[in-house]
Amino acid sequence: MRQEDPVATHAAHAAPDAGTRAMRRAIELAARGLGSTRPNPVVGCVITDAAGTIVGEGWHERAGGPHAEVHALRAAGAAARGGTAYVTLEPCNHTGRTGPCAQALVEAGVTRVVYAVSDPNPEAGGGAATLRAAGIDTSAGLLADEAESGNAAWLTSVRLGRPYVLWKYAATLDGRIAAADGTSRWISSPESRADVHRLRAESDAVVVGSGTLRADDPHLAVRGIAGFAAADQPLRVVLDTHATIRPGARVLDGAAPTLIAVAQDLDEAATRHLAGVELARLPHDKYGISVDALLAELHRRGIRSVLLEGGPTLAGAFVAAGAVDKVVGYLAPVLLGAGPAALADAGIATLTEALRLDITETVRIGTDIRITAVPTAPSVHTALKEH
Question: Which is it for strands 164-172 and 305-308: parallel, antiparallel or unpaired?
Answer without folding.
Answer: parallel
